[in-house]
Structures are given as structure tokens and as C-alpha cells.
Design brief:
Layout lengths: L1 E6 L5 H12 L3 E3 H14 L9 H14 L4 E4 L6 E4 L2 E2 L7 H11 L2 H12 L5 E5 L2 H5 L5 E6 L2 H12 L3 H15 L10 E4 L5 H10 L4
Parallel strand pairs: 1-6, 1-7, 2-6, 7-8
Antiparallel strand pairs: 3-4, 4-5
The structure holds adenosine-5'-diphosphate (ADP) and deoxycytidine diphosphate (YYY).
């Protein structure tokens, strides 16, 4: 079985995916974490993301690591996904304001989207995949699809609790990212839409579960 959970930034995708995956006893895959890891790789290597050759250069960097036996790999742990490069856990570097500010520029590069999609499509179901285009593009065959949303203010209030930043600037940054990510974020036509501002996290997880086969 494949289940997809897509939605806007900070709508609760990972938290809901983790809860549902735990209830179903299957892994969840955070596609966003792979985009974040590739962005980290680009920044570490001083790649500029807004040039015409950026996508090709980034893809060459990632496949070069692969060929040298040091690939970036998603570890789809149910309690929270990680990304490792060889023996190094990169996860703690991926949810920073620096990566937040750059990741949309990387995520529009077709070569990077192909690389992320190939990583995910190479995995064996059952699993739950979360991101932006999991139900629309990457796993159109998924049995059940969900699209999570909430107002920018609700989402900003949640991020502030996690990152201790100023509410107004977090809300402005989220709106900017919504605009930049809009192209790849259109919900799948057959997705169930859920407003995560309308209940607690356990209630939203229960709502998703109510749409899944017992
Ligand atoms: N009703 C809710 N639904 C989903 N997430 C919620 C809810 N209430 C609070 N949260 C919190 O919102 C934060 C952002 O969720 P997260 O899963 O990181 O979002 P995303 O993966 O979409 O960026 C988390 O700390 C999560 O626990
Ligand atoms: N399937 C996906 C997943 C994420 N992205 C992009 C869009 C987001 O700005 C970044 C990071 O996504 P992630 O889900 O980790 O982060 P947010 O929940 O948006 O804070 O990657 C994408 O384009 N396609």
C-alpha cells in the first residue's frame, strides 16, 4: 500500500505522517528532507542555485558522491526521518532558517526533482510518502491521498514554538515559500483535503485514519 500526504509548509505533514505511519506500522518518507539535504550539499559546495547550469551541476555533485560510495541517503525512521552521507548524519543541519530560505530555489530545478523522485520510487512499498507532489506526480498510483493546509498565521505560530523566531517574520517567510513552491504544490485531484488548524494533532491523525481501510 502507498499513502501520500502533501501540503503547504508547516501544515503538519511530517507530524501527521509519523503518527499515521506508526498506527499502520509502515515507514514514512519525507521527500522535503531530501530537498533540504540537496540544498545543504549545494551551499556546502558554494553552488549558486539561480544560474542556468545549477541543476546540472547539483545533479553531478550528488551522482559523483554516489559513484564514490558516499551517497546521500534517506533513512525513513517512523519517529523522524534522517539523511546521512556515508557515516555522517546531516539531519540536524537541515531544519535551519538558512536552508528554509534556499530550499525553494533548489526544489524548482528539474534535475534535482528527477534525482529525488528516483530515490523515492526505488523504495519498496508499503510506505507513506509526504511532501508536495507525492500524490500528483511521484506516486499517482497511491491508494489514498491527503492534502493538508492551515492559515499562514496558524502555521507560523507552530514554527515559532519550534524555532523561537519572531512571529511576523516567520509568517512572511512562510508566505514567500508558499508562492515559490506553488508550481509543484498543486494537490492531486483525488486527494482528501484536511485543515490541520481545525483540531489537535491526535484528532488530525484520527481524521486521516478514518479514510484508510481498517
Ligand atoms: N493539529 C495539528 N496538526 C498538525 N501539526 C500540528 C498540529 N498542532 C500542532 N502541530 C505542530 O505543528 C508543527 C509543524 O508540523 P510539521 O509536521 O513539522 O509540518 P511540515 O512537515 O508540514 O513542515 C509540529 O511541531 C506539529 O507538532
Ligand atoms: N515533494 C516535495 C517536497 C518538498 N519540496 C520543497 C518545498 C519546500 O520548500 C522544501 C522543504 O520541504 P519540507 O516538507 O521539508 O518543509 P516544510 O514542511 O515546507 O517546511 O522542499 C518540494 O518541492 N517537493
Amino acid at each position: 500500500m502507498i499513502v501520500t500526504i502533501d501540503g503547504v509548509a508547516a501544515s503538519g505533514k511530517s507530524s501527521v505522517a509519523s503518527g499515521v505511519a506508526r498506527a499502520l506500522n509502515i515507514p514514512y518518507l519525507s521527500s522535503g528532507l531530501l530537498y533540504r539535504a540537496a540544498t545543504w550539499a549545494a551551499l556546502e559546495h558554494g553552488l549558486t542555485l539561480d544560474t542556468p547550469q545549477a541543476g546540472r551541476t547539483l545533479a553531478q555533485l550528488l551522482t559523483g558522491w554516489e559513484e564514490r560510495g558516499q551517497p546521500l541517503r534517506l533513512r525513513p525512521l517512523t519517529e523522524g526521518n534522517q539523511v546521512w552521507q556515508a557515516e555522517r548524519d546531516l539531519t540536524e543541519h537541515l531544519h535551519t532558517a538558512r536552508i528554509d530560505a534556499q530550499v525553494s530555489a533548489a526544489a524548482v530545478l528539474p534535475e534535482l526533482r528527477d534525482w529525488v523522485n528516483a530515490q523515492l520510487q526505488g523504495l519498496t512499498p508499503p510506505f507513506l510518502a509526504e511532501g508536495r507532489d507525492m500524490g500528483s506526480t511521484v506516486f499517482p498510483q497511491a491508494e489514498r491521498k491527503f492534502y493538508l493546509y492551515a492559515t499562514p498565521r496558524v502555521r507560523a505560530e507552530r514554527r515559532v514554538l519550534e524555532r523561537h523566531q519572531d512571529l511576523e517574520s516567520v509568517e512572511a517567510a512562510l508566505k514567500l515559500r508558499d508562492e515559490r513552491d506553488a508550481r509543484q504544490s498543486a494537490p492531486a485531484l483525488d486527494a482528501v483535503h484536511i485543515d490541520t488548524g481545525s483540531g489537535t494533532l491526535p484528532e488530525i491523525i484520527a481524521q486521516v485514519m478514518s479514510h484508510l481501510p481498517a
